[in-house]
Design goal:
Elements: H1 3-9, H2 11-28, H3 39-56, E1 66-71, E2 74-77, E3 82-85, H4 88-91, H5 100-110, E4 116-117, H6 124-137, E5 146-150, H7 153-168, E6 173-177, H8 186-191, E7 206-210, H9 218-235, E8 240-245, H10 259-271, E9 275-280, H11 292-295, E10 304-307, E11 314-318, E12 335-336, H12 337-352, H13 361-379, E13 384-385, E14 389-390, E15 393-398, H14 403-416, E16 418-419, E17 421-423, E18 429-432, H15 441-457
Parallel strand pairs: 3-16, 6-7, 6-8, 8-9, 9-10
Antiparallel strand pairs: 1-2, 2-3, 4-12, 5-11, 10-11, 13-15, 14-15, 15-18, 17-18
């Protein structure tokens, strides 16, 4: 046995993990529902928040500093309050808070010699993560053969653009969807359809936008997108390297497209030698399949795919034909050792819990959550309305959909103990990303009771 194998087989290690899990469970299981702050902690907590605002150059969006423990979707804050966390770091914590699988995987990672994996050092779990993601992406024939790990969704998307531009040189333009979000690097801010995110930044790319699908006008938005795409390709022949797609609009408001909509666009692009990039940084693991492009039946169009958040480490998948001919893909760090191990543990849990499939946990939980929101819509007309997202990406429009109304309700939900976030513009929406591996109908019931309380007060 290798020395590393002997270390992991040492009974003292297993006993230590067992004791840690027992201690964690003893405290974690006491966190069973939403509660308010403890008065004796409020002053010191307010001081922490003020110091955090100074240290980071601005106050956090929510007055949130975790105590370091939770229980599934419940999280304890430093003031003793407990929130029902249905946004989980914008989709990062797929198993919620203080899950035993996270403890075991990160303890194992702590026993390794390196904190970070990178271009010059890879452990066996880096290999396992790459091969695992490729297997999950390719059962229906998607032409994806390689996987590059990275530390952020922005870096995964940057790598996807580099692959596309390198392969289609000298093509230099990108096509995106209205209201899309790609990231906040200089290049990705150009793709992101938010002018405020480009304030004071130099122009880095030529990007053109086509209409995003909207279920209120499925035929019209599909026709409009196809017409706009054809006009762009005619106006700039041979200049487009890629079409960059979110299959469920994330920051754009949680509007899913359809197979017909996406297939129409992708086929036109392939016919014109334009690559397809599917951004799955937020959608991964939240629909009927691990990858949203499989959920929508778009496997044959998957030239490049990015993912992250739930996996704890991010990645760019691409095909053999797109393998760069120069050294353009390299990073000192590809991911923390603990992140890679934790990501594998998350994938194990999601698959073992039956999250995927046409009648899997994700779809059934969506249908249940949707039915509860529809009941609230009927009970409080004009106060809340759909559409309600897709899979474990849930959203609704509050009131008139104005920014003020959405922000006011979001803050009230937080005060009452439910964490969500904003999405979309005109209308502004409230979105939820419940942790797919552990959310139950009980948690959804609690969330909806808090939403109803906020609606009734408005």
């Amino acid at each position: 046995m290798l020395h590393s194998q002997q270390l992991l087989a040492d009974p003292r290690i297993e006993q230590a993990k067992k004791l840690l899990q027992e201690a964690l469970a003893e405290q974690s299981l006491k966190i069973e529902s939403v509660r308010g702050p403890r008065p004796e902690l409020m002053e010191s907590y307010a001081n922490q928040l003020a110091r955090l605002a100074v240290a980071r150059g601005g106050a956090p969006y929510f007055p949130y500093i975790s105590s370091g423990i939770g229980n599934g979707p419940f999280v304890e804050l430093g003031d003793g309050s407990v929130k029902l966390d249905f946004i989980v770091g914008i989709g990062v914590h797929g198993l919620g808070h203080s899950h035993p699988a996270m403890l075991r995987s990160t303890v194992d990672a702590g026993l390794e010699d390196t904190v970070m994996q990178g271009n010059l050092q890879h452990d066996a779990y880096s290999l396992e993560m790459c091969e695992r993601l490729i297997r999950l992406a390719t059962p229906s024939g998607a032409p994806l053969h390689h996987c590059l790990l990275s530390t952020s969704g922005a870096m995964a998307n940057e790598n996807s653009l580099k692959i596309a531009f390198h392969n289609r040189f000298p093509a230099s333009r990108v096509i995106c969807m209205d209201n899309c979000f790609a990231g906040r690097s200089i290049a990705l801010a150009q793709l992101t359809d938010r002018p405020a995110y480009r304030t004071g930044l130099p122009k880095a790319l030529d990007v053109d936008f086509i209409p995003m699908f909207h279920p209120a006008d499925a035929a019209g938005t599909t026709r409009g997108a196809v017409d706009t795409l054809n006009k762009l390709l005619t106006r700039h022949p041979g200049e487009y390297a890629c079409l960059w797609l979110e299959l469920v609009a994330g920051e754009g408001g949680y509007y899913p497209g359809t197979h017909q909509y996406f297939e129409s666009l992708c086929q036109i692009c392939h016919d014109n030698n334009v690559l397809i990039i599917f951004d799955e940084v937020q959608t991964f693991s939240r629909l009927s399949q691990p990858f949203a492009f499989r959920h929508f039946g778009l496997d044959r169009f998957a030239d490049i795919v990015t993912l992250g958040k739930v996996t704890q480490v991010c990645a760019t998948l691409y095909g053999e034909k797109l393998k760069p001919k120069g050294p353009i893909l390299s990073q000192t760090f590809t991911g923390a050792t603990a992140s890679i191990r934790a990501g594998l543990a998350v994938l194990d849990e999601l698959e073992s819990k039956g999250c995927f499939g046409e009648n899997g946990w994700n779809i059934r939980r969506h249908q249940y959550f949707r039915s509860k929101l529809e009941s609230l819509t009927e009970k409080y007309p004009g106060k809340i309305c759909g559409p309600y997202g897709e899979g474990m990406m849930i959203a609704f429009t509050p009131g008139d959909g104005s920014a003020e109304t959405a922000k006011t309700m979001l803050q009230r939900l937080y005060d009452l103990g439910l964490m969500g976030f904003l999405a979309g513009s005109n209308p502004n929406r409230i979105r939820f990303l419940p942790p797919p591996g552990i959310t139950t109908e009980h948690h959804i019931d609690l969330a909806c009771s808090i939403i109803e309380q906020a609606i009734a007060e408005s």
